[in-house]
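note to self — DONT lose this again. spent like an hour looking for the file last time. sequence + predicted structure for the chain T wanted, 471 res
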Amino acid sequence: MLLRFLLCCLLLFTPALAAADHSASPRLPEAVARALSAANIPASAVALLVQGAASSRPSLSINADLPLNPGSVMKLLTTYAALDLLGPAYTWKTEAWIDGVLSNGVLEGNLTLKGGGDPKLSFEQFWLLLRNLRARGLREIRGDLVLDRSLFNSAESAPFDDRPLRPYNVTPDALLLNFKTLRLQFLPTPGQDSIAVFAEPRPAGLAIANLIRPSQDGCGDWQAGLATELSDDRLTLSGSYPVACGEKSLSLGVLSHPLFVLGVFRQLWQELGGSFPGRLRDGTAPADARLVSSIASPSLAEVVRDINKFSNNVMARQLFLTLGAEAVHGAASPADAERAVRAWLARKQLNFPELVLENGSGLSRRERLSAGSLARLLALAWASPLMPEFVASLPLAAVDGTMKKRLRQNGAAGQAHIKTGSLDGVKTIAGYVQDREGKWQIVVFLINHANAAAAQEAQDALLQWVYQRGG
């Protein structure tokens, strides 16, 4: 009798034990596991979490508390904190001040350009600011061009990698103009032994030496055949360019921030019929200076969209420092920005003990965050009145941004708002998927491994799995 009783008990409890064991050791979806195995990426290098957007418990969680480098997925923290702290209608201003006497179009004094940290002060917007000065009668400046860049205490740092002219290596600045980049346009002419190159803007004082030769190769990776070198105020372009490519463009970050502003100012001021024989210096406008013109940035909601859709690093860093400047009501450093973000997290009762912040963009080898913390952030944003602005800022699978070319022949196409991240050894995604039943799911998938670049198939497989299976 005792033996029969024990056998019955064992049969009754076996399903419960099996269920408990399955819950304690969750498995990767088969397609995801297969893709990771093909890429030679072990499970120990992976962290992921899937959870209903309105749920408080994950349906799939693996290594969710593991601190990993999130890459550009870190922008989710910076941008949502900014939307909540500053509001989606927040704008930045760039101002022009004069001191001295303005008479008959001649300023016997200085023109000060005061930077407000605008992440999107474009070449065209700068032209409008200067055109407004000309419309107010200013023609000749006989003093100095003074740049007030004091809002950010952030010196230009060393490049992130060995490609210093790439736009992602541009550092933040209170007077960031046109992302400090040139757009080079390559125009091949059949039968010619040279490639025409046009630059916009074309900063005065920057010499461009075009040594590029045409090639008859297929287009393919056309940038691989080009070489660029900046030495002081001379940019040398060399190598080959395939004629088969037709017209292409390439953006490069050149010069220091002050020299870039000076060069573009001289270019546009001359084109507008103005005269400026003076010199450049950093400084601030004196107390008796007069504000003569200003220009506002696009709204924060639009800026956040650019940051997340296209993973713009310098814009994210500008926004990060803006959070610090608003918190201290003055000049801000990255440390001020970090304190502002951590204080906001505390007020939102989000405890991210593993969080390491450096610049808020994810272009860092130091920054760390876990899949679980990212999921809690995404859940908070989903329940917020700011949810529409935030979700709309994320790339839409197979439609735009960094997800434009992914999941095109897939049921999840157009159903997933996903922020991506990519560094050497880092491949990450995080965002929201609407499953085929119409329910929204939070998805986070972080990979830190030498073979991470080969992990896209695994991440896309997870997005498809969530779309098909939901929670």
